[in-house]
Amino acid sequence: MKKTALVLIDLQNDYFPGGRCVLENSLVACQNAKRLLLRFRELGSRIIHIQHESNRPDPAFFAPGTDGMKIKSDVAPVQDEKVILKHKPSSFIATELQAHLEALGIKKIILAGMQTNVCVKAFVIDPQSKSYDISIIHDALAAATKEIHVNTLPLLARECSRLISTDDLLDNLK
């Protein structure tokens, strides 16, 4: 697992009940992401949190300095877990993500987060992601609606190494 990292994209308060852009099924997706996170912590594996901050004037959500921009407490980073701040849908654009992955020698990425059809999709279609073996945890993702989520999964399946459930991945981690 030394060359594997769990990457959690935009698990931020604005996507959950009480937030400014609530996604359908976000609580279930977050609980699955939390199970992955706890297991990766047990294994001492690499964990990277991606946090989106809007740089638009008068943003609808993820406004700088707001509670909505904070990573949800259930999956908040601890100790030396890396947090990458981004301002675009792709986690690779104008961030240190690529350099960080290279410095760690990461070859495989386990991916979970929000939104299935926006930032998760942007991650896997970004040309820089093509050098990684990416497993997407389909039940640890959420979108504005279940229909959008389900309709985006076939595209993600074509762009990644495998689409897998939380249970199946955890059963295979040793």
Descriptive overview:
The longest helix has 18 residues, at 26-43. This protein has a six-stranded parallel β-sheet. The protein has 174 residues and is α/β, with parallel strands linked by helices. Helix 3 (116-125) packs parallel to helix 4. Helix 4 links the parallel strand 5 (133-142) and strand 6. It is 33% helix and 22% strand. The chain has one domain (4-172): Rossmann fold, CATH 3.40.50.850.
Rg, Cα atoms, Å: 15 Å
Return the structural class. Answer: alpha/beta
Note the beta-strand portion: 15-25%
At the fourth level of CATH, the homologous superfamily is Isochorismatase-like
- Please identify the top-level CATH class: Alpha Beta
Q: Please tell me the CATH architecture by its name.
A: 3-Layer(aba) Sandwich
**Morphology call:** globular
Main attributes?
174 residues; alpha/beta; Rossmann fold; 6-stranded parallel sheet; 6 strands; 22% strand
